[in-house]
Design a protein that fits this description.
By secondary structure, the protein is of the alpha+beta class. The chain has one helix at 13-62; strands at 66-68, 71-72, 75-80, 86-91, 118-123, 129-137, 140-142, 147-153, 156-163, 173-179, 185-191, 196-199. Strands 5-4-3-8-9 form a 5-stranded antiparallel beta sheet, with helices on one face. The chain has a 5-stranded antiparallel beta sheet with strand order 7-6-10-11-12, covered by helices on one side. Strands 1-2 form a two-stranded antiparallel sheet.
């Protein structure tokens, strides 16, 4: 009796094509999920950056950080939808104290001049941007603002919230909405009592 060893022929062309297709699909799913995850992380980091900058303004304002030699000013954060990729931390030179009326953000948030109180301009990276500015009063919420300022001044730990550069009205809450490249959003909510929150839909 003669025994013959069966020779393995390996993958057929069809089996090879199916294997490559499955591998390609799985790789695409993993890469898409990773990209979406990275986008979500970057957007959340932006929301935290805005919240931390607002907290920094609060700390500077309450603790009387010296802006210049012998000059102690209120501090705030300025947002302007004419430049959705940046925001500034500024020292109030009297614009919101009805003194010299020197705007702390002459030229908008793309302009940062220490002579006008600009402490730092923060640039937003990637496809993220500030998409909406909202304030809340007794009459409800308004989200069609172009400009928003949140200011802190000792000895009051509360936030003074001004909309559109108007200084005769303050609001109970401010919401800064940031949007990512994938369309997802985060909200930074600043209450008049100084509380700062971050979430998707607070």
């Amino acid at each position: 009796m003669i025994f013959r060893k069966k020779v393995n022929s390996g993958f057929t062309l069809v089996e090879l094509l199916v294997t490559i297709t499955i591998f390609t699909v799985l790789t695409g799913v993993v890469l898409f999920s990773q990209s979406k995850f990275n986008s979500s992380i970057l957007l959340t980091n932006l929301a935290y950056d805005i919240a931390l900058t607002t907290r920094q303004a609060q700390n500077y304002g309450i603790n009387i950080k010296e802006y210049d030699a012998g000059e102690f000013l209120p501090y705030g954060v300025h947002f302007d939808l004419s430049s959705t990729k940046s925001f500034i931390l500024f020292a109030d030179h009297g614009y919101y104290n009805n003194k010299e009326k020197v705007s702390p953000y002459d030229g908008g948030v793309t302009f940062c001049d220490l002579g006008h109180g600009c402490v730092n301009r923060y640039n937003i990276q990637g496809g993220n941007f500030i998409s909406a500015l909202c304030v809340t009063s007794g009459e409800g919420e308004t989200c069609d603002l172009e400009k928003l300022d949140i200011i802190f001044q000792r000895p009051d730990p509360d936030a003074k919230i001004y909309a559109g550069g108007v200084t005769d009205t303050t609001y109970s809450k401010a919401v800064i909405v940031v949007t990512g490249s994938d369309g997802s959003t985060r909200e930074v909510v600043v209450q008049a009592n100084g509380l700062i929150q971050i979430g998707e839909n607070i």
